[in-house]
Amino acid sequence: MLYDLTVVQFSKMLNNLSAILDKAAVAAEAKKYDVSVLLNARLAPDQFNLIRQVQIACDTAKIGVARLVGVVDSAPKHADTETTLDELKTRITETLNYINSFKAEDFAEAADRHISQPRWEGKYLTGLEFAIQHAIPNIYFHVTTAYAILRHNGVDVGKKDYLGAMPYKV
Amino acid sequence: MLYDLTVVQFSKMLNNLSAILDKAAVAAEAKKYDVSVLLNARLAPDQFNLIRQVQIACDTAKIGVARLVGVVDSAPKHADTETTLDELKTRITETLNYINSFKAEDFAEAADRHISQPRWEGKYLTGLEFAIQHAIPNIYFHVTTAYAILRHNGVDVGKKDYLGAMPYKV
Q: What are the pLDDT digits (tens) for B13-47?
């Protein structure tokens, strides 16, 4: 299930994020302002701007999956130098390509794996704890904050853009 | 795992939400304004205010768990009439009491259960799909939006307030 919760669902959310960035471009074009105004917008002076929210959403997916699978050094490096919407969309695409290179069986030992980060000073979480309490809440936080920045600035986004399509059955 | 993803983690997030509401009260007190200004704040004219974000976060937890367990009619009713911070915190407490009345074994058949809502016009999702693609993204959306409304209005909240404590091990 960790595969579905991360690779599959993170991919869906990153695609949704890419689509709301397209809506940002449409809004900027319609009102004749530079989309970089939106990319640099933030909800508070000391909160990250939209560019950084997208970068962190991508990193949460990339590094979260890499850690769960136990191959953290295999994640592609990104220098956090994106300044344009096209560059952000490329970052999302590269992240999607990376996380989708894994299969469900790569997560066989993920739940019990010891996950750590330099700033945790040697302490660890189990993979299950890391996924449920850290990676998953974090990616939703940054995608929602990106959405909120656009919503606050009048871009025509709604909850369905955030959630994406549901696999309804009859 | 659906129990951990919903009852346990939703409880953590609702407690975190209750704690950031306390921070809202502190901010209002410090700057001598009525906390109802924050409760009625929103990020866009056509987006829900903080009160409604809290109500929906609670309902997502309450109804999501009830649907997964297969006892949707057992969820406590709420009339959405809260106007004060104390009333919102009571709503959160009642929601916590309800979802914590379930145990892991109540979720034995949750993943395969057919979940529907009136507005889905007879269509359904499996419990697993409903949890991963609907309930979980929704609760994080509303907690993050509540957080963003407070952050935007200068309340001293940070990522740690959103995530809560991690069960680090040595």
A: 999 999 999 999 999 999 999 999 999 999 999 99
Q: Please check whether residue B16 is in contact with residue B89, taking contact to mean a CB–CB distance below 8 angstroms.
A: no
Handedness of CA B38, B44, B46, B47 (dihedral sign): negative
- B 93-112 residues with CB < 8 A to A: none
CA dihedral A9→A15→A16→A22, nearest 10 degrees, is 170
Tell whether pTM > 0.95: yes
Q: Which residues of chain A have pLDDT under 70?
A: none
- Strands A125-126 and B114-115 come out as unpaired
What is the distance between the alpha carbons of residues A158 and A165, in angstroms, rounded to a whole number? 13
HEC profile for A41-94? CCCCCCCCCHHHHHHHHHHHHHHHHHHHHCCHHHCCCCCCCCCCHHHHHHHHHH
Query: What whole-number distance in Å separates Cα of residue A64 and Cα of residue B67?
Result: 29
B160 reaches A (C-beta below 8 A): no
Task: Give the closest-approach CA distance of B51 to chain A in angstroms.
Answer: 17
CA–CA gap between residue A109 and residue A94 (Å, rounded): 25
Q: What is the pLDDT of residues A75-107, one digit of tens each?
A: 999 999 999 999 999 999 999 999 999 999 999
Q: B49 to chain A nearest CA, in Å?
A: 12
Contact A132 B159 (CB under 8 A): no
Task: Tell me the two tokens of residue A55.
Answer: 């970068």
- ipTM for the assembly: 0.97
What domains does chain B contain, in order, with CATH numbers?
A: 2-163 (1.20.120.450)
Residue B133 contacts residue A166 (beta carbons within 8 Å): yes
